[in-house]
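re: that chain from earlier
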Amino acid sequence: MCLLPVVSFLVCLWLGEKIHCSSSFQDSMRELHSRFAVSLYQTLTETENKSNLVLSPVSISLSLALLQLGARGSTRAQLEGMLGYSVNDAQVQDFLLHSQGDLTNTSQGMWLQQSCTLFIQSGVQLLDQFTQRTAAWANTNVVQTNFSQVSHTRSPAEQPERHHDESWPLHSGSSSGELSGSGEAQAEAVWWGHRLQVALVNTVVFRGVWQKQFMFSNTQNLPFALSDGSTIKVPMMYQAAEVSFAGQFRTASEQRYTVLELPYLGRVLSLQVVLPSERKTALSSLESQLSARQLAAWNTGLRRTKMDVFLPRFRMQNKVDLRSVLPEMGISDAFNPATADFTGISVEEGLYVSDAFHDVRVEVTEEGTKADAATAMVLHKRSRAPVFKADRPFLFLLRQVNSGSILFMGRVMHPAD
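^ sequence. v structure.
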């Protein structure tokens, strides 16, 4: 009779330890994702230090994770080393599958969709194990096509805009193996198709509405200080709202900055705006000292505060050649025909990633994202509430609240560009 309480106690201990381990693993994965995002961002800013910049770290990391499934030898070791984890680990696979979930909620005016398509030159015999494993990934497709006979030559930026529920069809009746449809995935593969052996295209598409929208009638043209000291007039959105705010963080060199978080409807996703406290502080000095630990501290340091918020409307697009970026971060074998080992995709030799591009767009307006509106010119009355005014270069991160995944990350140097 005495055994029952003891057994129950041991079971409780085991369950508690299991929950603790699961929580620790998720925290570890979040930190690895943040570390990758910061490293990628800092690598890009080394060459593009004066212009607007936006990228999707989660899109790139998921693409590299999928490549791991077919990589072997040093090629896989480099991919694992860059991301900090192996997709052959069951816990990692489970975490990544859940992080790829569709967060679309049309009733709240928000949708977020991720999809991954691996285009492979026709004639390559794929291994059954590879196709089965990729099929287990959410929104993932493996498509064989003849890149040498593709006739479509427009760039992704020239493609008609695709609604989120449209599919990306491949016409099976096409004798040339031509990719068709208006999806960005085919467009990217087609654009560089004449040289491709493997094209890995991961898209992350987001549309969102603010939890509290900015009123169009409150937007006015106000000065924005550029990095060279000059000023321009830009449409500056305004609202008085209760927001999540963390004031006076400090970098290692004692430079101060503040963080504001604006939630989207449903509070599943949020936009964090990071602004140097001193006008004379260059944004580049803050960028160079970013770390995963700092990003985690922002979340724990946020407090609800009533504030006057000024945020410029901005829209930007970036096209990044990852073939020149990823080798600097430690991934080189995958792009080298002599060293690439993708025998986990096919036993045929010579399979390598000949090109990898990242095309991302973001638009922030009064409603949230992707909205068109006229601007009325008004004056604001001063209030006693503290003010957050993004009237100089700033960083922004669009994050998933629960997982901490950084869907988009960038900086605004010139809102009107």
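The first helix runs from residue 3 to 45.
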